Structure formats: C-alpha cells, structure tokens
Amino acid sequence: MMQWRDGRVEQVHGRWPGAVEYAVRLAPQDASGEPETVRALAYTALVGEPQVGDRVLLNASALLRGLGTGGLAFVVAVPDRLPADPPPPHGHIVKARYTPHQQMFLAVDEQDSPHHALMTGPLAAAGDLEGMPVVVADLHSALPAVLCGLRVDRPHARAVYVMTDGGALPIAFSRTVAGLKDAGWLAATVTVGQAYGGDHEAVTLHSGLLAARHVVGADLAVVVQGPGNVGTGTTWGYTGVAAGEAVNATATLGGRSIAALRVSEADVRERHRGISHHSITAYGRIALAAADVPIANLDTEFGQVVGEQAHRLVREAAGALTVRQVSVDGLDAALRACPVPLSTMGRGLDDDYASFLYSAAAGRHAARLLSDEL
To answer: Which of 79-88, 187-196, 362-371 shows the lowest mean pLDDT across its residues?
Structure first.
C-alpha cells in the first residue's frame, strides 16, 4: 500500500535534467505531531516544477521504510497548481503501463518514428549489431567505471547507455547519467521496456540495442539497470540477474558480449566477496551464449582469488565464456578523474576499490575490441 503525505515546499536542494529535489515540510499527522522536513523528488515531466510555498502530495512509502537508493519521498501532484499540458504527443508507446503515471512516448520501433526506416532497414530488421561490443553489468554503479576504463584507450568512442527496467524506471532519477552526459562521456541514452526518459525510447532490449547501433551510431553499448535494484538475498530474487539475458540478447543480434563482473573486497556479506553470487548466476546459469569475462591482471592475493573464481565460472557455465586478462595500467588515474562520484552500496572508490577496478577492466576490454576492428 502507498503511504501518502501532504506537505509544502520549503527549499530547492538541487536539480538536474528531468528532476528537482526539494525540502518539503510535512503536515502533522495529528494535533500533537511536530512538523517534519523531508527530501522529496519531483519528475518535471510528470508533475511540472513545484515552487517554494506550493502544496504537494507525496508518496512517502520508501522514505518511511528507510530504503537506501529509494529513501526519499516522491511528488505525486501539485494539486493547487497543475502543470500546463505538454505539446501533443507524437508517440503511441505507453510506459509505466496501467499505473497513474503512465505516459506515451515515441519509440524508435513504431511506425510514426523518424527512425522507423532505419529500424526496418536490412541490418536492423535482420537483428545485426555488426559485432558491436556490449558491456553488460548488474549494478548501475558500474556504468561510470566502465566508461573510465573505455576512455583510457578510446577516449573518442561513441558510448551509448541502454537502461533496462530492473531498477528505477525514470532515467531522470540517475544523477550519474546526467553528469556523464554533461561531461560528454555518453553519446546518447536508450530506455527500454518500462524504463523511460532516455534520448530514445525502445520497446525491448533487442530494439534498444539495435537503436544504439543504427540510430545513434554507437561504437559500443553499456547495458545495465537503473539505480535502485531489488534484491532479496536469494539466488533468483534479484533484478540484476537479467544481465544474463542481456548477454543472450547481444549474441542473438550478432554483438560481442562482455560480462562485467560484480566484485567486492569490502562487502560484509560473504556471498558478495570476490565475485558476487549474482554474477555467477547471471553469467554462469542464465547466459547461454558466448561472452568475454574480463578480469583485472592483479598480482595480489585478492586478484588470484578472483582469477580462480572466474576460471571456475567459465568451466561450469552453461554458455561459452572466456576469461580475458586486462592490464590495470592507467585505470587508477582514470577512476580518480571520473567526472561523477563513484559509489556502490554506499561505498566510494577507496572503500571498495576492487568493485570499480573490475568494472573499469571490462570497459578497457571493450576498447581493445574496438581497436581490433581498426
């Protein structure tokens, strides 16, 4: 059940494309209650842009339950000052379907799209990514690190982020994506499935990958869910295991899959130390197609442990996985120069260095594949 709250905007805390964060003073729940000020996020495409003093209705469920990534309230409506109607929509693809916030978008797949001819052209219609490297990861926090590794050797490569719908549905939730675009590190974004708000919309991951290649002209794509994944501590109850399906989709379309490992030396949970059990499940049991598995070439005890785990994963995998050793020279400097903060599960670069280093190694391996094409 959704937990509603009524409040009034006190202050603007920050803004980035598609979203504004506010301080909102809640109305007391009873006569004896003390007013409380909370963080609240408004998606401007949904509710307009509330102003200081506006009354707002909030969905406070995640905030009240103390969730991590989603631990803030969301503006559902500005009831006393509705936003103006947007220009007439051109698209017919509904996302966030059959929820109060469903919206219609012009997807690259549909007949009215200016890109429809490309999507029905001989390469896209045949499902041909032309060997494009596709880096697949399960945590949104891997995205900037992958790009750091890529740019060490291929700083001008056209990278496209394909956001799946296992985490946040609006891409505007991600300040990381906003920062990477501002820095010129992403040529474009494509939101697929129920996810929305990218530079391009696509109905499926398959058409989203094809759009990245043939509409945007990507040299490579990075496929990962938005921030705020769902996990249960069980083998199968985690949205990130869809990374295995992304490997299969890439192979189906004639791309080159790169399976970025989720690695940690700092996570207190044993199932995530070294290579996370989620990577083992996604790439070892769900992925049925070929993929490269990059590992950092570290001459340390931890590096040896991860190497042994990776080779065991390859031996036992359902698909044809191949371990690829990747040099770490230059990766530290690249990570430290990242234009957006690096953070995973609340841990920064130096708190969980291995997590970012192995993601960067996957990006560098993608750069190597691009160099091999030249």
So the answer is: 79-88
